[in-house]
């Protein structure tokens, strides 16, 4: 049976001369890895063990399940390779420099974004021949500020210059704007185009898994959705 997951696409990645095969997939009602043929016929899906790091690597082929590297950014220039990121509130970010045939994907939770996974991914793309002014980047479904309440221990991880990404909430609590923070980090890299889809994982239970929503509801927290980008073979 064909994979029936809904696929959201970004204008900045579709708007290149021939478009870039990509998609932010819904997760609710589906289990297991998506079929890479959703993007590229015969494509090979590359996944890693995501650990909220700031590390990115270049890849050419999939890893065995037991040997997936602990990284949160992937890049490639190998046709037929599909880069995959799994999330359930963190920001999935997909990158493409279609002119130079280089793509990337990053798992950007607050920790990874704060410590440089987006910058590391762009640097790895440059090592493969990408140019920043040609790179388009899109932020997929992510928890929104209104649903991301944090305490002082979280707030104190940031600097005064990041204050605009926090809003006061209940006593001793703040709301953190993760998508705005990720957008700011991307725009600081002077990329060609950047887009935030503006979709809240927490507020869309019929479409997306949300780790925080599951925690609040006392439900299993293992649901995830995939974000994919590939190069035609």
TrEMBL record:
Query: Does this entry carry the keyword Hydrolase?
Result: yes
Which InterPro entries has this protein been placed in?
Cu_polyphenol_OxRdtase, Cu_polyphenol_OxRdtase_sf, Cytotoxic_necrot_fac-like_cat
What domain of life does the native source organism fall in?
Answer: Bacteria
Keyword Phosphoprotein listed? The answer is no
Q: Which keywords has UniProt assigned to this entry?
A: Hydrolase, Metal-binding, Transferase, Zinc
The UniProt catalytic activity note for this protein reads: adenosine + H2O + H(+) = inosine + NH4(+); S-methyl-5'-thioadenosine + phosphate = 5-(methylsulfanyl)-alpha-D-ribose 1-phosphate + adenine; inosine + phosphate = alpha-D-ribose 1-phosphate + hypoxanthine; adenosine + phosphate = alpha-D-ribose 1-phosphate + adenine
Region described as Disordered: 11-30
UniProt lists the gene as pgeF
Q: Which family does it belong to?
A: Belongs to the purine nucleoside phosphorylase YfiH/LACC1 family.
Protein name per its UniProtKB record = Purine nucleoside phosphorylase
